[in-house]
Amino acid sequence: MVLDCRDELEQFIEGLRTHNVLTLVREEKLCCLFSSWKPPVTAADVRGLLKFKYRQDINREADRETGQQFVRFIQATKGDGATVNGITLKPHYVLMWMTGSSEIPALGFHKLIDIEFWLEERVNTCALCVTLKHLTPMVEDPVLYFTERVINSSTFGTM
C-alpha cells in the first residue's frame, strides 16, 4: 500500500519541507509533546470557504439574493442571532452541516465549498457542495429559516 502512495507521500513530505515544518519538528526533540491550540472557527472563516456558483440565466438575480441571505445567516452565528428554541448556532455548527467536520482542514488539504442553487436543498459533505433553493417571499426571516435547516439536519448535535 505504501508503494501505491509513494508519489503522494513524497509530495506531502516536500510540502512539509517547503513550509519548514520538517526542520522544526526534527530539530526540537520535544516538539511532538506539545499540542497546538487551534482558535475556534469564526463566521469570517466559514464565509471564506464558500464559492458561490450563480447561474447565468433568468435565475441569477434570485440566486444572488438567496446567496446574500445565506451570508447574512452565517454572520448571525457570530452572536446569538441564529437561535431557535434556546439552541444557538455557532460557525462550527454551520461548517459541520456543510462539510461533516467542525474544523477547517490544514491549508492545502481542503477545497472551497461550492454553493449552488436549484429547486431543492441538498448538502453533499463528500463533494463539499451545498445546493440551496430560492427563498420565497413567504420566508420572512432568512436567518431563522437557515437556522432551522441546520438544527433539523442529521449532522447537528450539541453536547
Helix content: 25-40%
The run of helices and strands is HHHEHEEHEEEH
Q: Architecture of the largest domain in CATH?
A: 2-Layer Sandwich
Mean pLDDT: 80
User: How many separate domains make up the residues?
Assistant: 2
| Rg over alpha carbons | 19 Å
- What is the oligomer described by this structure? single chain
CATH fold-level topology of the largest domain: Hect, E3 ligase catalytic fold
User: CATH homologous superfamily of the largest domain - what is it?
Assistant: Hect, E3 ligase catalytic domain
At the first level of CATH, the class of the largest domain is Alpha Beta
Secondary structure tally: strands: 6
**Structural class computed from helices and strand pairing:** alpha/beta
Shape: globular
Strand order of the largest sheet: 1-4-6-5
Reported for the largest beta sheet, the result is: 4 strands, mixed
Strand % is 5-15%
Distance between the termini: 38 Å
Catalogue the unreliable spans.
none
